[in-house]
Amino acid sequence: MPVFVALCLILAVIVQTKSPLQGVLVSPVFMYVGLTIAIATIIGNFFKKLPETISYDLFASSILFAWFAYWKPLFVTDSPIFFFFPIYFTLIIAFATLFFIEQRHKIDRDSLQRMQAIADSGVVDPWLVMICVTVTLYFENRFIQYPTMMTLLTMRYALSGCLKK
């Protein structure tokens, strides 16, 4: 998810430097466009019309914009979540990529079969996790749910990355 990681780092810099660009990013246009792209990505993933790698990156990037535009006006100006959540997302994506996806050649056949069974079970379908992430945007008073669901999405991304041939 290179686009998502880049956008997270850019957003963290914008927030940390108190850039006037924040005013543009909190406009309703960014929220609605982000939600529209996220929902379209969920539908495309459900019907298997989008490659998984693209759908993870596209969904995470669009929901990041929707999250920022929706939540930023609800919190105090210097709220640290708008700096630390994007940094956290960058770190967990880097961790999942380096230690799981890039090391998939070291996974034994039995573990791969179990991972494939989990992926095929439908319990953690990507579209289902994406819906959960989207729903957590509306619970701004429970601000930890959004990064928790994004962590679950990252784990599903790592599972998909380990299983691709």
Q: Topology of this protein?
A:
Layout: H1 2-16, H2 21-25, H3 28-46, H4 52-71, H5 81-101, H6 109-121, H7 126-136, H8 145-163
Helix pairs in contact: 1-4, 1-5, 3-4, 3-7, 4-7, 4-8, 5-8, 6-8, 7-8
Extract low-pLDDT stretches.
Answer: none
How far apart are the first and last residues' alpha carbons, in Å? 17 Å
Task: Quote the average pLDDT.
Answer: 93
Number of strands: 0
Derived structural class: mainly alpha
Estimated share of beta-strand residues: under 5%
Description:
- The protein is mainly α and 165 residues long.
- The chain has one domain (2-163).
- The protein contains eight helices and no strands.
- The longest helix has 21 residues, at 81-101.
Please name the defining characteristics of this protein:
single chain; 165 residues; mainly alpha
